[in-house]
Design a protein that fits this description.
ten-stranded mixed sheet; 25 strands; 13% strand; Rossmann fold; pyruvate-formate lyase- activating enzyme; 693 residues; globular; alpha/beta; three-stranded parallel sheet
Amino acid sequence: MASLAPDMQGAKPLFSYRKFWAQRFGVAPFLPMSREEMDQLGWDSCDIILVTGDAYIDHPSFGMAIIGRLLEAQGFRVGIIAQPDWRDASAFKALGKPNLLFGVTSGNMDSMVNRYTSDRRLRHNDSYTPGGEGGKRPDRAVLVYSQRCREAYTSVPIVLGGIEASLRRIAHYDYWSDKVRRSILMDAKADLLLYGNAERALVEVAHRIAKAGIKQDFSDVRGLAFLRDGTPEGWVEAPVDDLDEPDEGRRRKDEGEQGERTVIRLPSFEQAAQDREAYARASRVLHKESNPGNARPLIQKHGDKDVWLTAPPIPLTTPEMDGVYDLPFARAPHPSYEGAKIPAWEMIRHSVTIMRGCFGGCSFCSITEHEGRIIQSRSEGSILKEIETIRDKTEGFTGIISDIGGPTANMYRIGCKDKQTEALCRKPSCVYPDICKNLNTSHDPLIQLYRKAREIKGVKKVMVASGVRYDLAVKSPAYVRELVEHHVGGYLKIAPEHTEDGPLSKMMKPGIGSYDRFKQLFDAAAKAVNKDYFLIPYFIAAHPGTTDEDMMNLALWLKRNKYRADQVQTYLPSPMALSTAMYHSGFNPLKPVRRGASEPVDAVKGLRQRRLHKAFLRYHDAENWPVLREALKAMGRADLIGPGKHQLVPAWQPAGTGKTGEGKRIGHKGKPAQPTRTFTTKGVFPRPLNGKP
């Protein structure tokens, strides 16, 4: 899904609005974070104040910088309150009362994912904070910040956005409290919630509020959630129960011909909280109604109110993407940080985002839920211009572009061959169970981009650090050769996630055979240029649908292939993901969910079993040998205990080992360990630690 379907062409261009009167103040070197800076700019007030849980870095890899500069380009005076002290409202008055609205986000990550591990342990570091210091944002930051904004200035509208709001827009299972929580819009008592890539919706909402205030109808704005009392006249409600019936497609066609407007009523919050099958059904429908070409609005009752979700946002066109990334970013942290190291900034300062979205549809990943399946690509000229800007203006540039990619490395300008087909499609993935025949898999535009980027004067190397979708890459051996010859620095990360069909079918990931084919191409390309390069495969422990035997077989595969995994990550159920619905409900929302006929899924929930699955991934760590020996005996596989190369763990135990611990970190075939993979950050907008939205 690369470009817009015919019925999505009517969106108002992002930069076509008449600018707000405050445009006369011009462009700020940095969006102000203090009254002193406002005075220097000649401002008596801010029109919009953005509150974020991240440090303010004026760079297009950070959501608040994009949103702030985009609103500035619309003529608004925008201030930033970054990582405020949330214990009282005084920090939220630092810039005075905003004339139009507060925009509230937790930052580039869901605050609970940011603060806690998959074992619910508190993290003590934060990559989006100066010095990497933890504790600078509260749990459930969107709720807390919204409450303080309301305390500070009761009458100012509050608009929620970002990953935390987006993934909690309806009733959702919350892993940290182990219960279904209400839509965050209800708990935050905010006026509006913007979900997905919100540029288009936010610009429209800001201009409307500037003209007529918050008390108006926003139901024609895509990508929005708001509260209303019941279903307005002129709308027809469709229950979720019959949406998997064979005649559903015909029903949609009839509705279009008759001019009816249909909204789908999801199971209520109360139903979803009490009935796990109802929760799974709501999750399935939400994900099926995700294509902007055919999705219908959704409503979900919370008590006596309805949370109304308009259809998903229309993706940005290439000229609009270029306009966003060409905004006048300072490309540096705010001066108030006085040069303090911010790990996320250090990671992405020399990287370039070339696209958004992902049509992979992995059930555990939040990219599709937040950014959608349609690939939004920048133009070649815009990307090359940014590389030149990095070369000329970014401090510390040594000639190395650290990454040129996005949520995936190799979906640039790839999409559906037929726009009518694209508009009608309701499949959750374009590449699972097989690559769709309607998908254009040409990597030629990406190869051409790589070559032109390498030719820029002053650029010594252009790295690809974003994850490569290997089942797509095998369709273009020329791309694999180009990648290996010019854009790999010894190791390349890819994510098969598992080797066994059971968990892979629940993840919507290809079989391990696709990995084997890619490895053959990769190794051949490395040999052709006489390079000693390695693949670093990533795996998930304890994903729903994974048995102890599955993990044992994965461990045996790792040993056969002489892989010793670095630190591994146990599955973390992120809000609203399909695999989270499996984890919580015990049913498979990838299949029809019907009372008494839903497909069950076993979830790995007990701490003992979750740790066992993680131990299988680190079979080589002596600290894990006692628990693995015990498990293998219980599974009737004591034959895998011993010194043989086909056995998994030895029968002996080194002195001083055998207690829970990390053990020695070892890389591939004895090589130094690679940086830790943090699965829990996968799919966050913008993508954490590598600057990809």
